[in-house]
Amino acid sequence: MAETLSSEPQHRPYDVVILGASGFTGKYVLREALKFLNTPSSPLKSLAIAGRNPQKLAQTLKWAAAHHPNNHPDIPILVADTTSSSSLHHLAALCRLLLNCVGPFRHHGDAVVRACVETGCDYLDICGEPEFMEKMEAVYQYEAVEKGSLVISACGFDSVPAELGLLFNSSQWKVSSNEAVNKVEAYLSLESEKKIVGNFATYESALLGVANSHELRNLRRSRPRKPRPQIPGPSPPKGPTIEHQKELGLWAVRLPSADAAVVRRTLATLTENPSGLPGVNESPDQIMKREKFWSTVKPAHFGVKIGTKSLLGTLRIIAVGLFIGLLGSFSLGRSLLLKFPSIFSLGWFRKKGPSEDEVNSASFKMWFVGHGFSDINALPLENRTPDTEIITRVTGPEIGYITTPIILVQCALITLCQRENLPKGGVFPPGIVFGPTDLQERLQQNGILFDIISRRSLSS
């Protein structure tokens, strides 16, 4: 039965509310969350779903519950709209943690974050839009700290695999042996036994990001420059437009994703806080654990490329990028791109999204190729080239509907059960908050794997 939000609650009856649970990704988030609802040792004891249409939410709940034959919970359905600040305020006041699955976030996210900050509710989302994330930090950081609201975006495939993957690679460089990483290049490969079909909201967000790229530039220029981390050695060269990574068996081109921007925010925050962010009520043991973790992590130049096994596949990626870049800069072009996504994405995106079979057949591999120095004390590093390579890898299932819900739900469970070890409040990227927690171990237990592939010396 749907509940209309109309009065300020005296307590928070729900641990988690999923906003946008009837959307393409939201329904998979709900399905994933049901795995942990009222199970032994799970902190998730109460859950509600929210959105504009209670009938669609009811259908989604029926679909998600069918995947859990031993768990048919009576989950409340709450009516809320991202255009109604009052309904969002009441919604946020009902829960400890709100999971936002309503995108594009540049259109729908600000009011949700504001409601959570004003009511002291914690907030996680699956956003991959750098402008939105950085704007939320600029607007709400101080109030979020004051109100004790923890606001963390990019808690999905954008950008936890990139963040934890970089931290994992960085931690393989032995500080005790004077090893130091200089750069880490991530190579993403999407694979499927069937046709790869992406989330239309991802396509729309990328398009809107291109159309409003000037706003992100203006936002960054208007803010104080953050400290840059000290990285041993010279800045790496830009490299070719198309790279043939023979060791990985990939042709690759740079991917203009949110990952690099999110990683830079974490590294900038780490530069200001070398021991990480203190928790609101940490024990002495937890403080030692956090400080030890960050002592093993060293900053590096970071970039992301998307790879395919053939040159033709990479040329196809470039063609789609050109369509979005050229047509996305004016209104008629954007209209065409949104009206005919399958044509202009060469079949990679469509409005109805992938089928269940297409989702289940897809997977990803993300290699992290780290180059650095075996001994930073041997010679001056300014003119030296890296002499050591460490390759690590993150692998997992389909990125939008399986990996993203797994990540979001695990971040939510950590937020619920380890809240005293997390910052009191503030707007942060996921890496700086969840890096020293057991998030990596939790992801590995749920099918997202971290592996060391190789270590070798490079010829000069």
Automatic annotation (TrEMBL):
<feature type="region of interest" description="Disordered">
    <location>
        <begin position="217"/>
        <end position="242"/>
    </location>
</feature>
<dbReference type="InterPro" id="IPR005097">
    <property type="entry name" value="Sacchrp_dh_NADP-bd"/>
</dbReference>
<comment type="similarity">
    <text>Belongs to the saccharopine dehydrogenase family.</text>
</comment>
<dbReference type="InterPro" id="IPR036291">
    <property type="entry name" value="NAD(P)-bd_dom_sf"/>
</dbReference>
<dbReference type="GO" id="GO:0005811">
    <property type="term" value="C:lipid droplet"/>
</dbReference>
<dbReference type="Pfam" id="PF03435">
    <property type="entry name" value="Sacchrp_dh_NADP"/>
</dbReference>
<feature type="domain" description="Saccharopine dehydrogenase NADP binding">
    <location>
        <begin position="16"/>
        <end position="150"/>
    </location>
</feature>
<feature type="compositionally biased region" description="Basic residues">
    <location>
        <begin position="219"/>
        <end position="228"/>
    </location>
</feature>
<dbReference type="GO" id="GO:0009247">
    <property type="term" value="P:glycolipid biosynthetic process"/>
</dbReference>
<dbReference type="GO" id="GO:0005739">
    <property type="term" value="C:mitochondrion"/>
</dbReference>
<feature type="compositionally biased region" description="Pro residues">
    <location>
        <begin position="229"/>
        <end position="239"/>
    </location>
</feature>
<dbReference type="GO" id="GO:0005886">
    <property type="term" value="C:plasma membrane"/>
</dbReference>
<protein>
    <recommendedName>
        <fullName>Saccharopine dehydrogenase NADP binding domain-containing protein</fullName>
    </recommendedName>
</protein>
<dbReference type="InterPro" id="IPR051276">
    <property type="entry name" value="Saccharopine_DH-like_oxidrdct"/>
</dbReference>
